[in-house]
Write a structure and sequence with these properties.
The protein has 188 residues and is mainly alpha-helical. The chain has seven helices and three strands; from the N terminus they run βββααααααα. Helix 4 (102-146) runs parallel beside helix 6 (162-171).
């Protein structure tokens, strides 16, 4: 996002005493005619020592970022007014990770891996549960419509994909006999 800058310098001291501006920008200009070298070459300075706003006084995105940069070491959670900027929350998460020891970071990564694994297991279980539920429902529909089904047909139905089982559940109302069911399965 900062591709138009050569440098972004953040200081915790006052660098330019002749201005009260917190953010100053300098472009490279030709010495006598004062035209820019290239528009995208800019030096930007942020002087944290000049920033005095409290959390309730933050107005601009720049204010929020400067407040965050200044306060990050003492923040454990993002205040709601800063949380509106998702990138600031992500930056706090990275800052918190950077302050961890190697052992703490390793434990955190293990916990995150376990959470991802558990979410994956839950997702697989839900999918398998849906598949099993559709299979049970279709088999119940078939047995209610046709009574006892030969084992050979049961095996063919068991091997159908979820998509085909779902399709059979829709088609069952159009099948009048076991022969129709056999023909339908033969065409799959």
């Amino acid at each position: 996002m900062l591709k138009h800058f050569v440098a972004l310098t953040i200081t915790d001291f006052i660098l330019f005493k002749n201005t009260d501006k917190i953010i100053t920008k300098f472009t490279l200009k030709e010495e006598t005619e004062l035209f820019n070298y290239q528009d995208e070459l800019t030096l930007m300075f942020v002087e944290l020592a000049k920033f005095t706003k409290e959390l309730s006084e933050l107005e601009t995105l720049s204010d929020k970022w400067i407040y965050f940069i200044e306060s990050a070491p003492s923040l454990e959670v993002i205040p709601s007014s800063l949380g509106e900027v998702s990138e600031i929350e992500a930056a706090l998460n990275m800052a918190n990770k950077a302050n961890l020891s190697n052992e703490e970071l390793e434990r955190l990564e293990q916990q995150e891996k376990l959470i991802r694994d558990e979410k994956g297991k839950i997702s697989v279980a839900r999918r398998e549960g849906r598949e099993e539920g559709i299979g049970i429902l279709v088999k119940r529909q078939i047995s209610r419509k046709f009574g006892e089904i030969p084992l050979e047909l049961q095996a063919q139905i068991q091997q159908l994909s979820l998509e085909r089982l779902d399709s059979l559940g829709d088609e069952i109302f159009d099948l009048a006999t076991i022969a129709d069911l056999e023909n339908w399965l033969a065409n799959q």
